[in-house]
Each structure stands twice: as structure tokens, then as C-alpha cells.
Known about the structure:
Elements: H1 18-37, H2 42-45, H3 57-76, H4 92-111, E1 118-121, E2 126-129, H5 130-156
Antiparallel strand pairs: 1-2
Helix pairs in contact: 1-5, 3-4, 3-5
Amino acid sequence: MAAIKDVQRPDYVYIGSEPEVLQRMLDHYRATLLWKCEGLQEVELRQRSVMPSELSLFELLRHLTDAERYWFQVCVGGRELAGGFEPGTAPVEDVLAHYLEACDESRHVTASHPLDQVTFSGVYRQQVSHRFVLAHMIGEYARHCGHADLLRESIDGATGE
């Protein structure tokens, strides 16, 4: 078995052409998969998820609401927003409504700001482009949709692509 070691994840291209930003984002996630496997033996790589976790579909909705608001409304739109939800206390209906509202507002922000617009991101502590924000959120959703697949399968056996 080939050992996976010393995985080097390339930094993102925060400001660049569409091909540069997207290719580097893809390479980053390719390396992330290898990084998650780094140093594990075959038996560990074949181990199935059985660990208890606090993660839930509810928490994913809440987290992605906050991500939508931060990346699009704050970073790209330049707004200041009040805090998010108190963990675990908001009714599910409210979390879902806020999530759908945040997604609609993100679409509006994206439609009204150029992809080359540069803004500051406190997360990365540097300037990033609107194009990068879109690519970053694609990665954020890809990661969390994988979590959602596992959560849903554990609830009722439903699987998807």
C-alpha cells in the first residue's frame, strides 16, 4: 500500500482569474482528502463512521446560515449584522426560514456585485475576491453535504449522490 504522508495543501488563490481560483480550490480539496487519510493504516482507512457526534442536520442548517450571512452579506455586501442563533435553542422552523432568507439575500448580493470585487476576510486575514467567496462557499457546501449524507443515512437509510 502506498503511504500517504507529508501532504501539502496548496493555498487558495484569493484574487485571480476564474480558472486560477477554481483550479486551486479544487486542488486544495483534493489535497484535503489525502490529508484526512494521512498517516492511517489500511484497517483505519477502511473503518466506518461509528463515533458519537454532536453534529446534526439542524446544526448544519444553522452553521450554513451563518456562513451565508458572513461571506455574502458582510464580506461582499459590506454590511454589519447582528449575531446568529443561540446553539440548540432556536425552533427548527425559524432556523429553516433564516437559512432560506440568507440564501436569497446571498443570491441578491452576488447578482449586484462584480466577481472581481475585492474585500477583506477576517477568516483569512487578507483581501479576497467575490469570485473566491463563491468558490469557497461551493467548497463549504460540498464538505457539509457529505456530512448531511451520512447523517440522513443514519436517520432513515436514505442515500443520494
